[in-house]
């Protein structure tokens, strides 16, 4: 079991994978805060996709990730 399947809220991940930007922003933050490093690429992907759509939480999360890199 990888970190994403262990930490991700069960209803949110399918929504994020289907393109829901609220869910993507939530997944990015959840993975970043409560997961191990192996989930970081997935978290960045969700944050970047949400930010690209102009989602405020996605923009903030992705910006934080870029600043920390």
Model description:
The chain is mainly α. The chain has one domain (3-68). 74% of the residues lie in helices and 0% in strands. The longest helix has 14 residues, at 21-34. It is globular.
The oligomeric state of the chains shown is single chain
Please tell me how large the radius of gyration is. Answer: 11 Å
The geometry reads as globular
Task: Count helical runs.
Answer: 5
Which H/E pattern describes the elements?
A: HHHHH
Residue windows where pLDDT falls under 50 for at least 5 positions: none
When the domains are counted, the total is 1
Overall helicity: over 70%
Most strands sheet:
none
Mean pLDDT: 87
Structural class: mainly alpha
Question: Count the strands?
Answer: 0
Strand content: under 5%
Q: How far is the first residue's CA from the last residue's CA?
A: 27 Å
